[in-house]
Amino acid sequence: MNLYDLFVKPYEDYTTLQIMLESAGTFFGILSVYFSIKKNIWVYPTGIISTLIYVYILFNFGLLGDCMINIYYTAMSVYGWILWAKNSEDNVHVEVSWATKKEWIFASILFAVSLLLVTFIYYYKPYIDNHFSMTGANLGLYHLDWANWLDVFTTSIFLVGMWFMAKQRIENWIFWIIGDFICMPMMIFKGLGITSVQYLVFTIMAIIGFVKWKKSYKEKRKIKS
Q1: DSSP track, 27-93
Q2: 35-51 pLDDT, tens per residue?
């Protein structure tokens, strides 16, 4: 399979609107990560635009886990926006730190609950795809392919990453790096070439964000000491 088959051919059957929506979602998603690296509160309004676009796209492509995570992103973006605004001296930038042991315990519980919840949603996927009718729908996990199972796992990873980011914790970047890297082949498999490139950019930006947030925290510690 060549690059044309991976990134161009899937779009031959797409409408202009679908291509424009995916491009717009990708643009605002990258812009949101850029603002996150800068510890700038604009990470949230730009992120909300991107997540709402992807709720529509991912639902149509059957990635229910990612669709759900984007609904969660939208809600968490509002929560994070409020939290960052309260913790910002200039209403734009925030200070960051490492997570506490208590926060790690909560994050572990959040990850486990997410795994169960998304698996439960996929169990009822035939019912959902059948316009919420049980007529002719066979419930179960038999219909899942490897991309769906990855979706279950990455959804849980992103849930924790988003929560850590709202808390201004440096560890959030670790979860973004892992999840973004895994999502690249999954999106190619689903025919979302533009989005797979987005996740490649996200992975690189997340590594940069991790380095910059660590450096910022060390500099803050030096000033205080």
Answers
A1: HHHHHHHHHHHTTBTTHHHHHHHHHHHHHHHHHHTT-HHHHHHHHHHHHHHHHHHHHHHHT-SSSSB
A2: 999 999 999 999 999 99
